[in-house]
Amino acid sequence: MSDGTKIEWTDATWNVVNGCSVTSPGCTNCYAMKLAGTRLKNHPSRAGLTQDTKAGPVWTGEVRFNDKVLSDPLRWKRPRMIFVCAHGDLFHENVPDEWIDRVFAVMALCPQHVFQLLTKRPERMCEYLSRRKAGKPVQAPLGDGTLGYHPFNCEVLPPSNVWLGTSVEDQARADERIPHLLATPAAVRWLSCEPLLGPVDLSGLMFRDVECPNWEMEGSQPPVDPETGQQECCSSCDWTGIVGEPAIDWIVAGGESGPGARPMHPDWARALRDQCAAADVPFFFKQWGDWELSLDRERDDPDWRADYSNDYVDRGKSRWLNIEGGRGFHGDRFVVMRRVGKKAAGRLLDGRTHDAMPRRA
């Protein structure tokens, strides 16, 4: 348990399960994987969870339960936002249900805290919670055995102080993971779009389907606005408002930091910000990562009069990102990023911070 953390959107981390597997592009530069294979490689909670490769430490797929920290939240009286399993995935395929039961039992006994749970395996999370909600209460052992067993009431699952989220680094992962998240019983659902490695369009994924009461009179479902992805009321109804409501309660976005960090196009973050604003969903911009915006031609040289042919050349030091003949990340938009490090790059998006959080359920 770490009371205090540099992660901007939480207060503490609770590493009750450690270890994982590389499952998608967002895992390539995983800080927890690198840490487990370097500074913490001899620590009992991390030893043997990674193997050395030419690319550095890589998860082996082994996972480990840390009994010593399981009951820590029970002893914390001051309310905290707690990030669950920052160095692992609670819903990893090698994590048995009994471990998950114990974690949820502790969270249910700590209504003063908010637990922020994040997974790259939302299909397992959905299956587990759906099955536990429909099943009988389980007896989950707490701590090292001195605190006894807690009858975990599955009928009220999940607790309202548990926020369930999934990681989405690009459109492919959004299309794959978000539907599982939306099918999961949850008081609060959220997305971590970090590291953001590509544009993410949440049209059709941001809103729940809410049927218009008169849609059958039209012979089809209410039409969908192509710009917002929201269903609009049918012509048989006097009300012309939106009939959908947000299905995602919070979105965190950020660029990658650390060795080998990949740059984030500013428009990717802006698009998520704007989609959140349109849907009235809280948006939190965590960081730029190691790269900052050095030149946006549409902003800095809208008349295209300057000559950049000899500027922003990467001379082998990886300081500048010189992208394919100055064409930028995509199309004809000329955007150049400069590697300056996380601290220097900061977390201002178009001159302002975005720290919105969901209201506690």
TrEMBL record:
Q: State the source organism's domain of life.
A: Bacteria
- Which is one Pfam family of this protein? DUF5131
What is the protein named? Phage Gp37/Gp68 family protein
Organism classification, top ranks?
Bacteria, Pseudomonadati, Pseudomonadota, Alphaproteobacteria, Sphingomonadales
